[in-house]
Amino acid sequence: MNIFLKIEETLQKQLPFVAYRKPNTSVLKGRFQKNNNLITLKNYSESGFIFAPFDSSEKAIIISEEQSDFYQEEITLNNIFIDDTTYPADSSSEENHTQLVEKGVQAINNKLFKKVVLSRKEKIEVSDFNLIQTFQKLLCNYPTAFVYVWYHPKVGLWLGATPETLVSIQNNQFTTMSLAGTQVYKGTTNVTWQTKEIEEQLFVTDYISERLSSVSSKITTSEIETIKAGKLLHLRTILSGKLKTNTAALIKTLHPTPAVCGLPLEASKQFILENENYHRGFYTGFLGELNINTNESNLFVNLRCMQIVDHIVYIYVGGGITQDSNAIKEWQETVAKTTTMKKVL
């Protein structure tokens, strides 16, 4: 059966499912659960598709290999129309977010932490939301992203197109990345980065490298490169190594990364939980294949995502705050990031 038809059929039956395509591939995969059980992860030894929240004290959900049917097929999606309808950002959101950023900068000046990632949730009312069309638009327009649609009747409906890998593991070899800094793509990746973005990227890379030293050996780090993700550019560094322990220890070491939380981790996370004034849920959590083929996992950070509740779309967006951050510019960066999701509605 065509996976898009399977998605519609499974959604009508209100059974859990996920459909996804990895970056730079044309293979669409789907895992469709045979019952509506809510299966939470116990110890990372299970196999299937994991959907994990930002806050690691909350339970991760898995569509298990044992309780689901798996489909995959080659897809070709050409020239799917992107609507130019604009959804203006809420002016009250601007005031709230700039005040939050200013509070974050003040906390950095007070030496509470070096960096914090602050986010917001934007509400858009859509009268005629079409899941399949929206998913196909994401697949067509973000070929270098991990694109997914995930549903569980007891949790909700999420879609996304994320540019960031949390970790890929095969046997005892792994690869991860640090991703930070954002600017709008204007026809070239040969751009100048400001000191603020370069420092933010180095913060993230150094932190991840230090954290990995406890669970891995032979860590190698690539040069910083500029990558394109939709209409945005980011700075990226690839890190790889050999695992000295198990998958669970590696994931717990990496999540949440400074790219979605801050530095130092606990202080910045506490600031987020106390000051963002909304629940991130699965935004800036992670998702992907866990222990597929017994020894392979491919997990991605849940960025550039939306949650669908009836006729309301919630878009989640944020940015890294450092000592040099400007509140107005940080707001503008979040507005630029929302276009990834808004363009497909």
Describe this structure in words.
This protein is of the alpha+beta class and 345 residues long. The protein has a single domain, classed as Anthranilate synthase (4-Layer Sandwich). It is built from seven helices and 18 strands. The strands form two sheets. A nine-stranded antiparallel sheet has the order 5-2-1-7-8-17-18-6-14, sandwiched between helices. Strands 3, 4, 9, 10, 11, 12, 13, 15 and 16 form a nine-stranded antiparallel sheet that branches. Strand 3 and strand 4 form a beta hairpin. Helix 2 crosses helix 7. It is globular and about 55 Å long.
Number of helices in the DSSP assignment: 7
State Rg: 19 Å
* CATH architecture verdict: 4-Layer Sandwich
Q: Approximately how much helix is present in the residues?
A: 25-40%
> Which outline best applies?
globular
How do the strands line up in the largest sheet?
5-2-1-7-8-17-18-6-14
Query: How many β-strand stretches?
Result: 18
Give the terminus-to-terminus CA distance.
Answer: 26 Å
The chain-level mean pLDDT equals: 91
The domain tally reads 1
Assign the CATH superfamily.
Answer: Anthranilate synthase
Structural class: alpha+beta
Order of helices and strands: HEEEEEHEHEEEEHEEEHEHEEEEH
CATH fold topology: Anthranilate synthase
Largest sheet: 9 strands, antiparallel
CATH structural class:
Alpha Beta
Pick out the low-confidence regions: none
The proportion of residues in beta strands is: 35-45%
Structure in a nutshell:
The protein has 345 residues and is of the alpha+beta class.
Summarize the helices and strands and which ones pair or pack.
Layout lengths: L2 H10 L4 E5 L5 E7 L14 E5 L8 E4 L3 E7 L16 H19 L5 E11 L5 H11 L4 E7 L3 E7 L2 E6 L2 E12 L10 H18 L3 E6 L3 E5 L2 E12 L3 H8 L7 E2 L1 H11 L10 E7 L3 E6 L3 E5 L2 E10 L5 H16 L3
Antiparallel strand pairs: 1-2, 1-7, 2-5, 3-4, 3-15, 6-14, 6-18, 7-8, 8-17, 9-10, 9-16, 10-13, 11-13, 12-13, 15-16, 17-18
